[in-house]
């Protein structure tokens, strides 16, 4: 019996394509995205174009003031820090709670195997399983509000991850190794150590991206790892 095919609206399809173009860097920081341009590019009516743009505005990928043209968000150093620190607050507590029950999410295990399988190809290939790894940890707590809070950050988090990968700021082997260690610490019930490793894991990416965006990197950018040689 054939599998079900999910129906995707025109608005969702256009938003997905625009989202992909933002993540890949085809649509760069600060680039304008007008309803007229979108309508023309995708050959749709302006209300459809407007609805597609509004979806990305709601996700934090586009910024638009009242009666102004939408633009791809400009990720400055402070914005990068805000995004990473917001997710760190949520993820650290989640790791402690998972460790208290020694709950290792199967989705996170599989996502990390998928990261390990990325031997070549585009650096952006790592972003999807990396995002899935962290989201699986969040969802494993089973709290719908926490999952909802995290998903409100997903667009901006994925944008940061895409920038990190496209700029070759982190080695894939290091990402995978630290993920694996996080899972081991959860299984061993060592929540505080898992939270500490998460701070190192996110802090290194955060501060390297800050530097790439023209800011002054903090010491976390050079955090060493004994899990893999960079």
Automatic annotation (TrEMBL):
Respond yes or no to whether keyword Transcription is given for this record: yes
Q: Specify the signal sequence span.
A: none
Q: Which Gene3D superfamilies match?
A: GntR ligand-binding domain-like, Winged helix-like DNA-binding domain superfamily/Winged helix DNA-binding domain
The answer, when asked if 4Fe-4S is one of the entry's keywords, is no
Under the heading InterPro entries, the entry gives: GntR_C, TF_FadR/GntR_C, Tscrpt_reg_HTH_GntR, WH-like_DNA-bd_sf, WH_DNA-bd_sf
Q: Where is the HTH gntR-type domain?
A: 8-75
Mind telling me which Pfam families this protein's record contains? FCD, GntR
> Which controlled-vocabulary keywords does the entry list?
DNA-binding, Transcription, Transcription regulation
SMART domains per the record? FCD, HTH_GNTR
**Top-level lineage group:** Bacteria
**PROSITE patterns named in the record:** HTH_GNTR
The protein depicted here goes by the name: GntR family transcriptional regulator
């Amino acid at each position: 019996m054939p599998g079900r095919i999910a129906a995707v609206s025109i608005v969702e399809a256009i938003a997905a394509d625009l989202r992909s173009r933002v993540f890949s860097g085809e649509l760069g920081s600060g680039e304008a995205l007008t309803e007229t341009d979108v309508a023309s590019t995708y050959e749709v009516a302006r209300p459809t174009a407007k609805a597609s743009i509004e979806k990305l505005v709601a996700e934090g990928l586009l910024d638009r003031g009242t009666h102004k043209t939408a633009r791809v968000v400009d990720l400055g150093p402070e914005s990068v820090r805000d995004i990473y620190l917001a997710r760190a607050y949520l993820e650290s507590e989640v790791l402690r709670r998972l460790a208290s029950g020694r709950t290792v999410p199967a989705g996170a295990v599989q996502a990390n195997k998928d990261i390990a399988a990325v031997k070549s190809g585009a650096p952006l290939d790592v972003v999807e399983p990396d995002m899935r790894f962290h989201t699986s940890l969040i969802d494993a707590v089973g709290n719908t509000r926490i999952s909802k809070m995290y998903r409100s950050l997903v667009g901006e988090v994925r944008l940061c991850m895409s920038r990190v990968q496209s700029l070759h700021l982190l080695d894939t082997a290091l990402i995978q190794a630290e993920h694996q260690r996080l899972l081991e610490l959860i299984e061993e019930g060592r929540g505080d150590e898992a939270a500490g490793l998460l701070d190192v894991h996110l802090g290194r990416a955060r501060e390297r991206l800050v530097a790439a965006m023209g800011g002054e990197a903090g010491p976390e950018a050079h955090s060493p790892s004994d899990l893999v040689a960079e």
